[in-house]
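Known limitations

Files may contain more than one protein. Parsers should not assume a single record per file. Below, a two-record file is shown to illustrate correct handling: read the sequence, read the C-alpha cell line, then continue until end of file.
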Amino acid sequence: MVTVTANNKVNPASADTATKSLSEQNFGKTTLKSRQRKFDLKFLLTGNSGSGKTHFTSTYTKGPIHYYMFDKGGEKTVEKLMGNREDITIDNFSSSAVGFSDFWKQFQTDGKNNFFEHLAENSGLLVLDSLTNANQKAITEICKKSGITPSGIGKKLDMKLGMAPPHWGQLLNWMTTLITALQELPCAVAVTVHLHVLMNSDQEVVARYPAVNGQFRQLLSADFDEAYLLTTQGTKRMIYFTEKLSFEAKSRSFSMAHATGITLDQLVDAYLKRGTEIK
C-alpha cells in the first residue's frame, strides 16, 4: 500500500515497494512471454483428392519426414518429389489386410522407442495421410469385431446389421483419442483429410467439412493450430488460411487469406521468423 504523508504527498520509497511487490507476486498468475519458436506446429490439411495435400507435406526439406500412409498409392506422390533424399520413411497401412489396431500398435511402439522425440530434435515432420481412410479402417474394424458387417454386394439389406449409436460412440472415442495423442507429440504433425461436401435439397453447397464421420468432423479443426483448405486449378496450387468455399479454414500464425504455389519450407521459415505472411 502506498503511504501518504500529512502533506498529502506520496512517499516514493513506499510506491516503489508497492510496485515491486505487485510485480513479484503477480497475483499468482503466469506472465505471458514471447517464446522462441520451434517447428512443432500441428496442421490439418483438407482438400479433394489431387488437391496437393501429400504434395505439400513432401516439400518440407529441413528435417526428416515420416509417413503413416493410409491412402493407397499415396507414396507415389512422395517418390515423385523426394529425389535422392534418404530421410523420408514410411509405415504403409493402406492394405485392406491391415487394421486400425495394427496402426495403433505401431504408433504406441514408436512412442516407447522415442521416435517422436527423434523427429522433434531433428526438426522433423510426422504425417498421417489420410485421416479419412484411417477413420474408414476404424469403422471396418468396429463392424467386424461387433459382428455387424453390412450385407455384401447383391444381398438383401438387413437393417439389424447396421452400426448402432454405441458403435458410432466407439468410433468417436477412437478418433478423438488419436487426435489427442497427435496433439501431444513433441514434433510437428501434419494430418491430411479428404473433403466432404454437404448439399441441400436444391443441390446447393451448404458447407464443406473434413471427410470423417458425424460429430467428429465438426470438432476436428478446433484441435489444430493450423487448418488449411487446399485446392488445385490446372497447375496452380492454392492454400487458404481463412474461410473459403464454405470451408472454415483458420490460422493462428498467419494473417493472409491465401497463398499460391508455396512450399512447406517457406511456411516454416515465415513461422520461425514470426512473419504473418509467407513470401
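...continuing to the second record:
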Amino acid sequence: MPRAFASTVNPVRAVQTRTSRAGLGIVTALIAALTMPNEAAGQRSATARTPEGHPDLTGIWQAVNTAAWDLEPHVAQPGVPAGIGAIDGDRIPYTAAALAKKKENDENRAALDPDGKCFLPGVPRVMYMPFPFQIVQTPTLVTMLFEYVHAVRNIFMDTPHPRGPIEWWMGDSRGRWEGDTLVVDVIHFNADTWLDKAGNFHSEEMHLVERFTPVGPDHIDYEVTIEDPKVFTRPWKISMILYRHKEKNLRLLEYECYSFEGPEIYKPIHTP
C-alpha cells in the first residue's frame, strides 16, 4: 500500500507546488514592504488641518520632562527629579564670566529664582513648566494660554517685530509656516527671567527661533535655537516632545502663585 500511494505522486507537480508557495511568500513580503511607507504617511496625514491647509495645533498640551528643573543632565536632589537633559550636546556653551554667574545663581536659587517671586517665567521656560497650556489658532494669530499665572503668548503671523529696543517678560513672537512647521522668531526680552530652576540664564539680547512640528495627531516636536552673544559662546539648541492631553472634560485650571504668599486678602481662599 505505501508503494502504491508513493507511485501516485507526480514529482513535477510537487516541485511546482513548492515553487508557487515560495513565490506567494515573496509577493506577500513585497506587498508589505510597499504598503508600510503608505501606512506611515497615513499616520502623518492624520494630523488635523485648518481650512488653510496648515496643521491644526488647537488643543491642550504639556511637556513631560524635567527641563523646568534643569535643562542639563542632572541627578536627583531633594525636590528635584533626575533628568537626562533637553540640550543637544548636554552642556550650555557659557562664556567664562557667564558660567561663574550661573554657578552663583544655582547656589542661591532658592532666593534668586524669579519663579519664586511669581514673575512671568519668560520664553522658552514657560513652554516646559510642569503645567498644561492651551493653543488657540487662527490664520493671523496663534495664542498660547498657560495655566501657570495665566501667562499668555501671542504669536503674530507673517508680520515684522516692532522696532526696539524693548524689554518684555515674554518677548515678542512673530510666526510663519515652513511646510508643516510653525517657525517662531522671538526677541525683545528683559534679563529678569531664567531658563530653569538651576540658574541657567540669559540677557536682554537673547534671540530664539522656535520650531513646532507635528509628529502625528497628538505630539509636537518642539525645538528651540538660542543665541545670546552676551552670555553664550555660540548658538545652542533645546528639543523635546509636547504631548496633547486627551482626558475627558480637561480644561485649564488656576495657578495663582502670588496668592500663596501674597496679601492677606488672598489667604482665606487657600485656607482649609
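Parsers that stop after the first record will miss the second one. For reference, the second record is described as follows. Helices lie at 2-7, 11-45, 96-107, 109-112, 258-261.
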